[in-house]
Specification:
It contains six helices and 17 strands. With 344 residues, it is α/β, with parallel strands linked by helices. A hairpin with a 4-residue loop joins strand 1 and strand 2.
């Protein structure tokens, strides 16, 4: 089968055919690779130049004075087995923690009703209250657990896994090496390939590294859905490093669409980042544009995914189509265990 990328309409999300053989079905470690041996497609917006590399080569594409900004949110084992009143099994995915001990949850691929109570392991329950923002699949739920959340999930939960992933994999394979703030339903996967060695080599080249936090929800894999609200924090030290890099002529390279969303939420109209935290419902479109990042490291996104609009805002439709056509023709792998794309 020859992958194709049809010309998309001028309006609307980019669409293309993703062959099943280009879906990463297991972690690179299961394919005999180190984390940093996945492939890296490097594309240059200004010259439309394209380079094929390995992720371990990343520091060589950056310059002294550049700043890498990473999301330090850690992945939760957010998938819980649940049962309905009739005894039928349901996979319950926890998405986003809300105030007042409420959660946004996804009862996976079942129709449910307000007031329904799902039974969880060890006597826990999840009471479904109302659909979340009119979503057909996300609900606001009240959790009643027999233990604090993190120990409970460590005992009874597992990483959220979608059908393209074959087999069960331990939580550590869904974590970045620098994760330290538990809260993401799904791994901020653009940073998965970083190893301590890559970070050390980047620092040795004079590339600075900063961290922020954005806890990801479960909305990302679904087509035609905008991202839901997510909690973020941009510390003062990170804001200062971003603003200093921009003043000094260095490039701000965002590691992942989550980092772009957090930085853009914290930035003023001139692109100056202000230390802040809270909830962001920002949706980045080509019409809105990107004000802070000069480079973006990201995975390859599914057809019509909302993330493609952000990439188009950053790189332009024509560049993005060319990059994705190249990735398809060259057999790059998609999804959280796949290859990566650096846009400069």
């Amino acid at each position: 089968m020859t992958p194709t990328l049809p010309q998309a309409h001028a309006r609307g999300a980019m669409e293309f055919a993703l062959p099943p053989e280009l879906e990463a079905h297991e972690p690179p470690e299961a394919r005999g690779l180190r984390r940093d041996e996945v492939r890296l497609l490097v594309t240059y917006r200004g010259a439309d130049r394209i380079v094929h590399a390995r992720f371990a080569d990343l520091p060589g594409f950056l310059r002294p004075g550049d700043l890498l900004v990473l999301n330090d949110s850690a992945t939760l084992p957010a998938a819980l087995p649940a049962r309905r009143a009739d005894g039928s099994a349901v996979a319950l995915h926890l998405s986003t923690a809300l105030p007042a001990a409420l959660w946004v949850v996804e009862p996976r691929r079942v129709r449910v009703a307000a007031g329904e109570v799902l039974s969880l392991p060890a006597g826990g329950t999840a009471r479904l209250l109302v659909p979340y923002r009119g979503s057909p699949r996300l609900w606001v739920a009240q959790l009643d657990l027999p233990a604090p959340l993190l120990p409970y999930l460590a005992t009874h939960g597992r990483p959220i896994r979608y059908p393209y992933v074959r087999g069960e994999w331990p939580l550590e394979l869904y974590q970045t090496t620098y994760a330290r703030e538990p809260g993401s339903a799904e791994m901020p996967s653009a940073g998965r390939a970083f190893t301590r060695e890559v970070l050390d080599r980047a620092a040795a080249r004079g590339i600075r590294i900063a961290y922020l936090t954005l806890h990801t929800g479960v909305a990302s894999p679904e087509r035609d859905e905008p991202p839901a609200e997510e909690w973020y924090r941009v510390p003062a030290g990170t804001a200062n490093l971003v603003n200093g890099a921009r003043r000094g002529g260095g490039r701000v390279v965002a590691v992942g669409t989550t980092v772009v969303r957090a930085l853009e939420t914290a930035a003023d109209e001139a692109g100056r980042v202000i230390a802040s935290q809270g909830w962001t419902d920002l949706v980045i479109t080509p019409e809105r544009g990107v004000r802070v990042a000069d480079g973006l490291l990201t995975g390859f996104h599914e057809p019509r995914a909302s993330h493609l609009a952000m990439l188009e805002a950053f790189a332009g439709r024509a560049h993005l189509e060319r990059a994705y056509r190249t990735a398809l023709d060259a057999g790059y792998l998609w999804h959280e265990f796949g290859d990566l794309h650096l846009i400069l």
